[in-house]
């Protein structure tokens, strides 16, 4: 098996500090490197569709909600795991572009709802296949079984850190 930069780093630490168990660096360091690779690949993909990752996340959350493609800002904030200020900035930018609207809920006139516009749905639906192609391309070095195993391990890791779905 071909080694990577983390193998070199771990070998150096083993030589310099044999008294320490540096094995966690092998996992966390590789996750950090993968995070950067994913970020760069997604940024390039989304840019081809005049989007960025935060915009894509909001549009995707609204699209996944199903017709009428509406969520409250609080629900979007929970989905994106960001602050209310961050979600407001995202919504402001998307509304300026005509990809979402904000209005009062028909069922509760006090509540604000964010609605995916036809233009927003078209933008998301155009970007999604390209996004998935990018992700498929990044995973070509792993078999389907390895991808499933990695997804399971990462899920278990995230759950162990308390990263579970927010309450509805």
TrEMBL record:
Name of the molecule in the record: DNA-binding transcriptional regulator, MarR family
Keyword Transcription regulation (UniProt): yes
Organism of provenance: Klenkia soli
Keyword flag Transcription: yes
Key words of the record: DNA-binding, Transcription, Transcription regulation
SMART domains per the UniProt record, alphabetical: HTH_MARR
Pfam families reported for this sequence: MarR_2
Recorded GO MF terms: DNA binding; DNA-binding transcription factor activity
Domain called HTH marR-type: residue spans: 1-159
Signal peptide positions (record): none
